[in-house]
Amino acid sequence: MDPITNPYAPGAGQRPPELAGREEQLTTFDVVLKRVAAGRPDRSLVLTGLRGVGKTVLLNQLRSAAVRATWGTGKLEARPDQRLRRPLASALHQAVRELGHTQDDEVAHVLGVIKSFGQRDAAPGTKLREMWTGGIDAPAVKGRADSGDIEIDLVELLTDVGGLAADLGRGVGVFIDEMQDLGPDDVSALCAACHEISQSGLPVIVVGAGLPHLPAVLSASKSYSERLFRYVRIDRLPREAADLALTAPASEEDADFEPAALDALYAATGGYPYFIQAYGKSVWDVAPASPIRAEDVAVAAPEAEAELAVGFFGSRFERATPGEREYLRAMADVAARMAADAVDGEGGGLDEIESVATSEVAALLGKKPQSLSPARDALLKKGLIYSGERGRIAFTVPHFGRYLREQT
């Protein structure tokens, strides 16, 4: 098959040629856009799931839907080492520009508030010429969104931005990727601001994406966050959608798959979107002709697995220290034992093992759980594992346990 016409696109946050299995989420979001723009309150949205399931892709698609609805939009990616003010100010600056409000004085005022909000992070004694501007020409508005209390300031900021959008009968969407990496104060402030804006009926929504424990992070910050957001779990694709993700792009290039090839690909990928693209690309490159056969999948599998081992699994594994790697391998072994017991008892396989007990990991390593806390906490901060409930942990990356067992 011609590698130049290869339609598959594995890449972090890169949209696949066929966005299969996400129709429900896109349809629901279109309703949210119309309701909020019409002044009818609706909840902000939070997408959760493992890495490689397409959260960032879907987040970008939702943002595109908001742009098509003539909303103002801005996007940021949270980082553990960065506070919210400046990236959010930059995102809202872009949103205001997209709105295209015609009243220059009102726009200048809101931009000045955004600037004031962003500059409040400056260290004492910072010279004026060194202050953050974010490309905003308007002068900072003193006394608005600059109190230093992030919760107060964020409410004032979103109120002014929302008012600008309401003038036009449109809305503003703030899209936050890796939302679980926001600091505790910023999470609390964001929840409080969303709550206040929703009660005011202003057309502002937040759309976040993060790891499976993100709902627990939000709930720990504000108990009412469970009612504040609409939580949508993004998971691996069911068989029909996974097949469509492969066959639809191929048909655009006058190519097809034999049923046995699709069986083999689903078994190899588990329906995870990133893996589907990686395997699809490798199979296309090695297949001599259409239709693609199961034999082609078998030949391509080592290449696809090698690519994933370096770019998807290996890059994450390399971030761990030797002690942390030992902990990760122990997690993988505990999960494998659980899967074997489940199969013997006619339960699910390895993909159904979502978490393991920290006590069992410690027992396998022959150590006390408390002595392993530093390694576990470091892995949590690095985003390699997550804890959805007390005393249990899980990999943030699908098939990571399988990768670890194959390395030893």
UniProtKB/TrEMBL annotation:
Xref: Pfam families? AAA_16
Which UniProt keywords are present, listed alphabetically?
Heme, Iron, Metal-binding
- Keyword Transport in the entry? The reply is no
**Molecular function GO terms recorded:** electron transfer activity; heme binding; metal ion binding
- Chain ranges of the Cytochrome c domain: 166-317
Q: Please give the InterPro entries that the UniProt record associates with this protein.
A: AAA_16, Cyt_c-like_dom, P-loop_NTPase
Under PROSITE patterns, the record lists: CYTC
Chain spans, region Disordered: 1-20
This protein's record includes keyword Hydrolase = no
Please give the name of this protein.
Answer: AAA ATPase-like protein
Q: Which organism does this sequence originate in?
A: Marihabitans asiaticum
High-level lineage: Bacteria, Bacillati, Actinomycetota, Actinomycetes, Micrococcales
